[in-house]
Design brief:
Length: about 120
């Protein structure tokens, strides 16, 4: 039986910018793949393991950025969603994310495609 993913904790972790709360949703051997301006599809940023992902989450949650999760679709072993960002300087960003889950409902692989305003 597959455990249910804790979407409420994910939303609260983003809203409160709590990297430790978010990190608790990941499997120990999770993989995070980021495609953005600095990391194109041919050379994405790939972080493996909770320690490496923790650093990424701390950076994500730092500062006064407002984070909001929306448009979520939850299946037994996968979650798709958007995360919207609003920075104090007016810059906005949008992540489209797919979370592959293990049988405990933890994130095993997360793929992020991020688009950001440019000034």
């Amino acid at each position: 039986m597959i455990a249910t993913f804790d979407l409420d904790t994910l939303k609260r972790g983003h809203r409160e910018r709590d990297p430790d709360l978010l990190l608790g949703l990941y499997a120990e051997d999770a993989e995070l793949v980021v495609i953005d301006d600095e990391h194109p599809p041919s050379h994405p940023l790939v972080l493996v393991g909770r320690d490496r992902i923790a650093d990424y989450l701390r950076e994500l949650c730092a500062g006064d950025v407002v984070l909001e999760v929306g448009d979520e679709v939850v299946a037994d072993d996968r979650v798709a969603l958007h995360v919207a960002f609003w920075h104090p300087d007016g810059t906005q960003a949008l992540c489209s994310e797919v979370l592959d889950l293990d049988d405990q409902g933890r994130i095993l692989r997360e793929t992020i495609v991020l688009a950001t305003d440019h000034s």
